[in-house]
Amino acid sequence: MELNxxxxxxxxxxxxxxxxxxxxxxxxxxxxxxxxxxxxxxxxALPGIGISLKFVQDGCRHNDGYYQVSDxxxxxxxxxxxxxxxxxxxxx
Length: 92
What we know:
InterPro entries: UCP037266, WH-like_DNA-bd_sf. Helices cover about 50% and strands about 15% of the residues. It has about 90 residues and is of the alpha+beta class.
């Protein structure tokens, strides 16, 4: 299987958001080792491939909270979860 690295990064981050407990930007940075800006850009790009995210406000500050995948759109969540090793191999 050949995956574009940009698409693979989006799939992988969506998988992490869906599978982690209360994923926020600092947790995603810790898990991936990617820069903050990369995480933010990929989160912002997910609706472009059909994945809907929502931010769950959980605290008094405006950025306290975490992300949830609310809809995978045309993508199969089980396929992504079952192929994370392959997806990660295409990250650049």
